[in-house]
Amino acid sequence: MCTPGGTQLMEFCPHGTRLDCEKNSITDCKKLHFKKIIQKHTDESLGDCSFLNTCFHMDTCKYVHYEVDRAAQIHGNQLVIPNLPAVGRVESTTLYPPQWVQCDLRYLDMTVLEPNQPLALRVLGKFAVIMADPPWDIHMELPYGTMSDDEMRQLGIPQLQDEGLIFLWVTGRAMELGRECLKLWGYERVDEIIWVKTNQLQRIIRTGRTGHWLNHGKEHCLVGMKGNPKDLNRGLDSDVIVAEVRATSHKPDEIYGMIERSVGFASSEHFKLGLYYYNAREHS
């Protein structure tokens, strides 16, 4: 967990709460602990809520919930993150401020992004890397609209890249469709990233909200390559991310670091694009 200053990390104690830690440890623990949230309607005999801090009904849920025991934080034994530049970074590189456009991609004419168009029509240009989290139709009620399979196939993704990488998040039902879309858009699938989801207590999720036959505790991100992009950094990261689930459709922050390390800052022309961001300002 990041400290309020955002420059240090503190480890979570494997015992969970401070009370359990004191029962099972003879030394003073300097790691982070949780404390139970006990409300009038809470029935501790029921145990922990399956959804913990992602529960939609915390104001009425009778199961136990938790919060970080910030009052008891001890600032020793912190893991300081070294201030090192990203791989491939060139200090003279010009970094442009993030920008975002709110639109319906089904009706956006991607040809206006072509570099041979008049300057006034070159809205975005071409991109070295794209990350997309499409609203696949998973036959469930969701807090946002979804797109049909044919609408996904017909998206103008090919106009966004001449060469580069695409990171495409897919649901369980859309795994084969995602591979099909990559091929239709002109990409070769070169890798796949697995996000193993953990809950607030840093445990593997066993009761996910998705899945028809089994509860889904992971997500897949297909990695596609178009053309022969140069200056890519290889072999720096694992294909597995273990990270906590947060808001709906919020992908793990680790994926952004992986993308930065893959493409780097070798050129000011290495623009990066995110599609279907539900909080565009946060990760533009």
From TrEMBL:
Annotated PANTHER family: N6-ADENOSINE-METHYLTRANSFERASE, N6-ADENOSINE-METHYLTRANSFERASE CATALYTIC SUBUNIT
Catalysis performed (reactions): an adenosine in mRNA + S-adenosyl-L-methionine = an N(6)-methyladenosine in mRNA + S-adenosyl-L-homocysteine + H(+)
One Pfam family from the record: MT-A70
Record's GO cellular component terms: nucleus; RNA N6-methyladenosine methyltransferase complex
InterPro entries according to UniProt: MT-A70-like (IPR007757), SAM-dependent_MTases_sf (IPR029063)
Keyword annotations: Methyltransferase, S-adenosyl-L-methionine, Transferase
Keyword Methyltransferase annotated: yes
Protein name: mRNA m(6)A methyltransferase
GO biological process terms, semicolon-separated: methylation
GO molecular function: mRNA m(6)A methyltransferase activity
Entry's EC annotation: 2.1.1.348
Family designation: Belongs to the MT-A70-like family.
Top-level taxon of origin: Eukaryota
Entry annotated with the keyword Cell wall biogenesis/degradation: no
